[in-house]
Amino acid sequence: MSDPCPCGSGLAFEACCEPYLIDAAKPATATALMRARYSAYALGAVDYLYATSGPKVRKEFDADSSRKWAESAKWTGLEVLAAEGGAEGDETGIVEFVAHYTINDTPFNHHERAEFARLDGAWRFIDGKIFGADPVRRDQPKVGRNDPCPCGSGRKYKKCCQATPEK
């Protein structure tokens, strides 16, 4: 029995993403390219990731970092949440997905809305918007050590509330 494809399609690897990764075929849709790129991460095929990237992504591509990240993770599944365009006759497409992986037994989810375009007759990854927790934002401006203490004492922060031991 053949190994299942890492992309989670339910097909055997050689009937799904392998022809793309060995350059025996080109993905016909943006979703097929997305699945093949997931399989490339799962298998450490960093050259495929570069080859299927658009010009802007290629300029910023760091093969060593991509390889280290791909190899440090155990890739546990892919969910394609939505696709807009990206069919065989389209020139552009968007695929929203969640890639599941673990690093040191800690599970992670990479949620992205990826943009694809057909360039020179082949689908390419153009850009993506990653979804995640919003950064922590302060309600008040940061108080510097030498700023007046916000408690209103008139002393510098470092000599007042910053110096007060935690109770």
Helix/sheet category: alpha+beta
Distance between the termini: 64 Å
Strand order of the largest sheet: 1-2-3-4
Count of β-strands: 4
Instruction: Give the C-level CATH assignment.
Output: Alpha Beta
Shape: elongated
Domains, number = 1
Order of helices and strands: HHHHHEEEE
Q: Average pLDDT, to the nearest integer?
A: 90
CATH architectural type: Roll
Look up the CATH topology: Nuclear Transport Factor 2, Chain: A
- The proportion of residues in beta strands is 25-35%
Number of helices: 5
Q: Can you offer a commentary on this structure?
A:
The chain has 167 residues and is of the alpha+beta class. The chain is 24% helix and 29% strand. The chain has 5 helices and 4 strands; from the N terminus they run H-H-H-H-H-E-E-E-E. Strands 1-2-3-4 form a 4-stranded antiparallel beta sheet.
Question: What can be said about this structure in brief?
Answer:
By secondary structure, the chain is α+β, with helices and mostly antiparallel strands.
